[in-house]
Design a protein that fits this description.
Length: 176
């Protein structure tokens, strides 16, 4: 008797490439550092009303490391939900199955195939942004001579501008 053999799609969604392609870590780290530097310098101009290296020098390393960690946590969040949902493609009008299908489509095809796929990926971006804000507010900008309002503005600006929007890139850009 012959066994049925199923071949499953082993192509990873772009946000999971981070784990399996170490060279992406370097490219991602350099890109994150450049973006963090630009945003931090702009923030310091608005906080001090003039260009100064003071805030940049005191906080760039922690801003960069915690930003990178936050992106990594966003990837873990998306992976956990993707794997934990046992997502596969369903047809029908059941809202629960449509959400699972959206997660499946977002992780195996393109997040743009379903509104639920887009929402799933956006939730990962928001998850990372919350950590970016929290780490910057609680650690990176602590004891840097900033008022509470300035810390909130600086942390919120970093969270919004440096969020991992690359999660929204379609898989087709990575796999022709």
């Amino acid at each position: 008797m012959k066994k049925d053999v199923k071949l499953y799609n082993m192509i990873l969604p772009p946000f999971m490439l981070f784990f399996f392609v170490p060279t992406l870590w370097i490219v991602s780290a350099v890109g994150n550092f450049i973006i963090d530097s630009i945003v931090l310098l702009i923030i310091s101009i608005f906080i001090y009303k003039k260009f100064t290296w003071q805030l940049y020098k005191k906080s760039i390393i922690s801003v960069f490391l915690f930003g990178f960690l936050s992106d990594f946590l966003g990837v873990l969040y998306l992976m956990a939900i993707s794997i934990g949902s046992g997502a596969e493609y369903y047809e029908g009008n059941d809202i629960g199955k449509q959400i699972l299908s959206g997660i499946y489509l977002a992780t195996n095809h393109s997040c743009y195939d379903s509104i639920y796929g887009v929402l799933f990926i956006v939730s990962g971006i928001l998850f990372s942004s919350i950590f970016i804000f929290a780490f910057n507010y609680r650690v990176s900008f602590k004891n840097k001579g900033l008022s509470k309002k300035q810390k909130i503005i600086a942390s919120l600006t970093m969270a919004i501008i440096t969020a991992p929007y690359t999660f929204l890139l379609p898989k087709e850009l990575f796999y022709p």
